[in-house]
Specification:
The protein is an all-alpha fold. It has two domains: 30 residues; 117 residues. Helix content is 77%, strand content 0%.
Length: 159
């Protein structure tokens, strides 16, 4: 009889231990976030400004008439910005656990190359396309900046 009581007590202890372990596993989650990179954040901001400046200057100082927006007038600026976007992509790639930010940088570079090729093939850009392209990149850079800010908050939560 004493043996049966001991087994029952041990079974209850095991059940309680298992329940506590289960609650602890589900109640405490470890989220692994890449480290915040202030230099990368500054590079995102600089590249964002450069792209915004590029489209605003094109919109404000040129017109589609008389080849004012011919691709060759903007080729060197496209290259300068593409170099900056490649740098952002590479900086994101080398950071561990950074797949989401890397993907945003890849999409941004792919769209930049696509829009550059469309400008090259059409040899002009309409006001509407400039505004759409500018908005697209504004949104992508915003996503990059929010991702970096999230890493900063995860690393150093406000008190």
């Amino acid at each position: 009889m004493k043996n049966l009581i001991t087994q029952t007590r041990n079974s209850k202890l095991l059940l309680i231990t298992l329940l506590l372990a289960t609650f602890a596993m589900y109640g405490c989650r470890v989220t692994i976030v890449p480290e915040y990179d202030a230099a990368l954040s500054a590079d995102i901001e600089e590249t964002s400004r450069k792209v915004d400046w590029f489209y605003l200057m094109m919109l404000e100082t040129t017109s589609p008439e008389n080849d004012g927006r011919a691709y060759n007038l903007f080729a060197s600026q496209y290259v300068d910005i593409e170099v900056m976007l490649n740098s952002l992509l590479n900086q994101n790639k080398i950071k561990p656990l950074n797949q989401n930010s890397t993907r945003i940088a890849e999409i941004t570079l792919e769209l930049w190359q696509k829009y550059k090729e469309e400008h090259r093939s059409d040899n002009t850009l309409s006001n509407g396309l400039i505004k759409l392209n500018r908005k697209t990149f504004s949104d992508l850079f915003y996503a990059m900046q929010v991702a970096e800010k999230g890493k900063e908050l995860a690393t150093n939560p406000p008190e």
